[in-house]
Amino acid sequence: MRKFSWQEGMGDEELNIDVTPMLDVVFILLIFFIVTASFVKEAGIDVNRPQASTATQQDNASILVALTDDNSIWIDGRKIEQHALRANIERLHAENPKGSVVIQADKDSRNELLIAVMDSARAVGVSNVAIATVEGE
């Protein structure tokens, strides 16, 4: 009785494993996770916001501006100068015209800077401007 060898039955053909279906599944999963991931925009810096008892949740906030206690302005994780504020808000408003501006002002920041941000937003055409607070008692 002769034993059949693995190599004898193959001849000159090589065994290849087709990985195309596996790659298709991996790419479909990648696309699924990218599409379903929630993207949260942040101003890029933590601020100590004041408390307010009448605070409400702001929907559709697309432009977040942070004002720190040392009176610096942060948008999208970048520190910007006051003279460049209007241009940055205008650029972000053009990306999402229905979005609103939420100002995260530190409780120790100057009111003058807060008013400058609000004026810049209104000058660009943003009608919905809100100030972020911490929900109080």
UniProtKB/TrEMBL annotation:
Coiled coil: none annotated. Pfam families: ExbD. One of its GO terms (molecular function) is transmembrane transporter activity. It is found in: Cell membrane. The keyword Cell membrane applies. GO terms for biological process: protein transport. InterPro entries: ExbD. Signal peptide: none annotated. GO terms for cellular component: plasma membrane. Keywords: Cell membrane, Membrane, Protein transport, Transmembrane, Transmembrane helix, Transport. The chain crosses the membrane at residues 20-40. Belongs to the ExbD/TolR family. PANTHER family: BIOPOLYMER TRANSPORT PROTEIN EXBD2 (PTHR30558:SF13), EXBD MEMBRANE COMPONENT OF PMF-DRIVEN MACROMOLECULE IMPORT SYSTEM (PTHR30558). This is Biopolymer transporter ExbD. It comes from Endozoicomonas numazuensis.
